[in-house]
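Figure caption, in words: inputs first, then the predicted bound structure.
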Amino acid sequence: MERIPISGPSITEKEIQYVSDAVTRCWYGNANLYHEKFREAFAAYVGRKYAVPLPSCTSAIHLALSALGLGPGDEVIVPELTWIATAAPITYVGATPVFADVDDATWCLSADSLAERLTPQTKAVISVDLYGNVPDYDALLGVCRARGIALIEDAAEAIGSEYRGRRAGAMGEAGVFSFHGSKTLTTGEGGMLVTDSDDLFRRVSVLQDHGRPRGDRLFFNDEVAFKYKMSSMQAALGLAQLERIDDLVARKREIFEWYRRLLADIEGVSLNPEPPQTKNSYWMTTVVLDERFRLPKERLMEMLAAAGIDSRPFFYPLSSIPAYSAMGGEEVWRRKNQRAYRLSAQGVNLPSALNMTEDKARRVCEVLKDCLTRARNH
Ligand SMILES: *Cc1c(COP(=O)(O)O)cnc(C)c1O
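Bound structure (pyridoxal-5'-phosphate present):
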């Protein structure tokens, strides 16, 4: 039987045409043609003044932290549950990550926990729109504004999600996106930084191009910085995908809806939340099992894999992974961030690729139900 992949893109004739056009024509005087179109269309879509195409979301976060002037001695608060790319750039600039708990209602950064983690050294917060879910931004921004702390919105997994009528990426000083092949909109590898701030945009533009002053034609650099650019072929692919974004998001929501209906009759299984006044673009449909199943996520993943179904574990709490063993250790953080530890242990991402079909979702749910029955009778 065909393996069901966890994630992957939707590529049509439009994408192939735009990329062919870029590789044929976008050299010499046309080199930036697709960048300009992609950046303008993207800024308009998110509802931001500026959009900066980049090689990855990781580089976008690195640039945002650098542009905000963060360095050694500064602390940046991140939620426990996210991909390491959210936090790794904090280390790149020499600052210190501080892990905060999540809310059960959103699976995202908790404003109460954020407030508890503040110290005089706190300079920024990176919130994460996990799997397309959005946190309570009114509460998070309230905490940040009261203390004059910058908020960066990691919307890598949430293009098309909304919070009170505003698109994901529109909250805080800057929003960042990933166009990795697993994400809803892909450029193969790629990312975007969006902001409304003239100062932040200007600083990012200098830092992404080896510290050249804007408009520099003399290769006369003001400072040592970074080289973070996207190619024309990637920008062309991104523009084609963006012109189809409503369809891509609708497909993600349809996949979620298949799972929701097929799993509606099982007790003790919850799926991604979509609180009132939010729209979830469901990058990955995720099941969280009630603890009474006594079925660790790793065991469930093995059972699914044996049936030809790829899955992923809910992200492990950052404080529990070897990369951050020097941050105090799991035992210290587990007590502080209990909701994150509980949620992570019970969650698995289900196949959510854009080539999913209702038949495949049915096969996944049949196998999943069988796994749960076996666990219950064990
Ligand atoms: C994918 C992802 C990133 C990193 O994106 P890259 O483009 O691979 O650098 C950052 N944060 C989150 C939450 C992600 O899921």
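The first strand starts at residue 50 and ends at 54.
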